[in-house]
Amino acid sequence: MMDSAKVEEANDPESYAAQLTMQQTIVLMTSVMSGENKTLLVTMLNDSTKIFEQLKKKIASQPQAQDFLIGIQATFLSIIGTQYQEIGEYTAALNSYHQALLLYEQLEQTQAKSMPASSTFSELMKSQLYQTALVGKATPLKDMGTTLVRLDKKPEAIAAFQKALKLFQDLKNKQSQGTVLVELGKVQRSSKQYQAAIDSFNQALTINREFGAIVNEANTRLEIARTERDRNNLIAAQAQIETSIQLIETEPPSLSQSSSLSEQKQFTAYIELASYFSTRQYFYDFYIDIIWSNLKNLSQSSKIVKYCNFFSSIPNGFYAN
After folding, report:
1. Dihedral pair phi/psi, residue 255, rounded to 5°
2. What are the φ/ψ torsions at residue 144 (nearest 5 degrees)?
3. Domains observed in the chain
4. What is the C-alpha to C-alpha distance for residues 197 and 182, in angstroms, rounded to an integer?
5. pLDDT tens readout for residues 156-178
6. N-to-C CA span, the chain
């Protein structure tokens, strides 16, 4: 845990930068920590709030430096929220995301006020800190949506995803738009808003194709297939999953057949191959499920036709007294 007394000794920009570097080191640690260690890491990140407050006091006369620090603190709060989410502390995660959102909104307003009143949105976007504020707002909103889904608060989750989507659209960040659209579609589907879900997935598909993201397109088509199945449109579901499988099969696994590979490298290669198939198994599982459902429907339809033919073959007056 960092010693806050050292911050009191910092009186120059280099010292501030050093403190921020220490904070960034903690962020890097989040990618390798797990289990109870991750819980400890959350505590360490919370303690960093004191350091940020001390730094703010020291640079009170430097508005630009303060704005930069607010952006950094908001980023850490967002990271804390993600850590809480990963350990199942969803309410705490929402609180952290909300705090981060408030700081990003503060940064956005400060940057807007620093520009001439007649400034257009495109002129505001030239400010790096203003862009940081918008990206910052969009990210915790997206993460809040995910957390709200896990708390089974679907209307609130949809609202959060829609707000995040609007911000990513303003930023012209299409790849993030695609990600949010898929998550939004999933919640809409689970809320039985099937057509809205299809619309969201189709928008994501357009972005997938624009970037040539074949795997993303396959995953999105799988979500469309699931939605069509849920609204009992099995023929459309089968068409989507078949296209999805065709897409994933255009990207086969790469496994070197060279006998010169060391045993360790061969082992790693086979592990990667197993991972490849495991991540694609659910496409085939879903396809089999849809085929069986269609066969059952066909069987039932055949029985109905058989009975109709039987009764239509009975002579007129057969039931007459």
Report:
1. -135, 115
2. -60, -40
3. 1-115+122-170 (1.25.40), 173-253+266-312 (1.25.40.10)
4. 8
5. 999 999 999 999 998 899 999 99
6. 96
